[in-house]
């Protein structure tokens, strides 16, 4: 699904835009635990989260996630915005809940990423 | 190729503001060296986990990353206080992190397990009241 299709679907407000709107998003990860994003995220994906501190950007940088959606209308602080610009990570804001965002994206055909099993 | 140091940096206890800067710099260095993206991803995740571990759990320490023609080695050393039960610390979900750390999205008890998962070889030297040394090797 193209990012340009996702924007109206979950009512996204752009905060930091690096990549083109025709960027293809394949899978979505909804998570507030950065430890789990680091542990389980397997693919280049989009992260939905309610956390807004700069370590969300750091975590995505390390795991090659290029898009972060802050849910529940939580606006990130300036240091998070600055770090995202510096490290080339796209940030968007949705007024919807995590559940509503995931539900709409799933219904529109986006799937979950393949999770690794804990060893 | 003889082993060369790619990066060496001190990490301060509780320095969440600068947390991740070492791993971020490393990612830039690996990109410039043309290291393939999946390998770079594994190395930077391991380094970031080790960097945050020093910040969250130790009295401060250092990270050194070395490269040879066969492998990348990430060495994290700290000034204590050591891990009393290493086997337990590697169990997924086990964590001693406080509420502040958990509020930042860390301390879910996946860090050490994750470092092991993304490393081809991992050695840990530690013990109660001792300094800790993690050596993670990722093959090229």
What key attributes describe this structure?
heterodimer; A: 119 residues; alpha/beta; Udp-n-acetylmuramoylalanyl-d-glutamate--2,6- Diaminopimelate Ligase, Chain: A, domain 1; six-stranded mixed β-sheet; 5 helices; 37% helix; globular; B: 140 residues; alpha+beta; Heat Shock Protein 90; five-stranded antiparallel β-sheet; 5 strands
Can I get a quick summary?
The complex is a heterodimer of chains A (119) and B (140). Chain A is of the alpha/beta class and 119 residues long. In chain A, 37% of the residues lie in helices and 18% in strands.
Summarize the structure in words.
The complex is a heterodimer of chains A (119) and B (140). Chain A is an alpha/beta fold and 119 residues long. Chain A has one domain (3-111): 3-Layer(aba) Sandwich (Udp-n-acetylmuramoylalanyl-d-glutamate--2,6- Diaminopimelate Ligase, Chain: A, domain 1). Helices cover 37% and strands 18% of the residues of chain A. Chain A contains five helices and six strands. A six-stranded mixed sheet of chain A has the order 1-5-4-3-2-6, sandwiched between helices. The model of chain A has no long low-confidence stretch (mean pLDDT 92). Chain B has one domain (4-139): Heat Shock Protein 90 (2-Layer Sandwich). Helices cover 36% and strands 25% of the residues of chain B. Chain B is of the alpha+beta class. In chain B, strand 4 (121-125) and strand 5 form a beta hairpin. The radius of gyration of chain B is 14 Å and the shape is globular. The mean pLDDT of chain B is 95. The relative contact order of chain B is 0.20. Chain B has five helices and five strands. Classes of the chains: A alpha/beta (119), B alpha+beta (140). Chain A binds chain B through residues 32-39, 49, 51, 53-56, 58-59, 61-64, 87, 116, 118-119, and chain B through 16, 19-20, 23-24, 27, 37, 41, 44-45, 48-49, 92, 104-111, 113-114, 116-117.
């Amino acid at each position: 699904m193209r990012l340009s299709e996702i924007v109206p679907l979950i009512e996204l407000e752009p905060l930091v835009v690096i990549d083109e709107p025709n960027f293809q998003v394949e899978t979505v990860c909804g998570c507030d635990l950065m430890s789990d994003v680091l542990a389980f995220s397997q693919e280049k994906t989009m992260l939905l989260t309610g956390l807004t501190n700069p370590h969300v950007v750091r975590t995505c940088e390390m795991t090659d996630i290029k898009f972060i959606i802050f849910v529940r209308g939580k606006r990130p602080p300036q240091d998070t915005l600055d770090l995202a610009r510096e490290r080339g990570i796209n940030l968007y804001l949705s007024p919807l809940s995590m559940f509503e965002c995931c539900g709409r994206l799933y219904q529109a055909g986006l799937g979950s990423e393949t999770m690794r099993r804990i060893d | 190729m003889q082993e060369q140091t790619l990066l060496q940096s001190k990490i301060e206890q509780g320095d969440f503001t600068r947390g991740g800067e070492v791993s971020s710099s490393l990612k830039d260095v690996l990109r410039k060296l043309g290291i393939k993206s999946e390998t770079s991803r594994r190395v930077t995740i391991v380094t970031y986990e080790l960097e945050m571990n020093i910040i969250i759990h130790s009295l401060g320490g250092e990270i050194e990353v070395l490269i040879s023609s066969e492998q990348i080695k990430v060495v994290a050393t700290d000034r204590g206080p050591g891990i009393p039960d290493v086997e337990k610390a590697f169990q997924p979900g086990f964590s001693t992190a406080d509420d502040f750390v958990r509020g930042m999205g860390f301390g879910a008890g996946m860090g050490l397990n994750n470092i092991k998962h993304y490393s081809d070889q991992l050695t840990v030297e530690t013990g109660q009241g001792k300094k800790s040394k993690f050596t993670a090797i990722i093959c090229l």
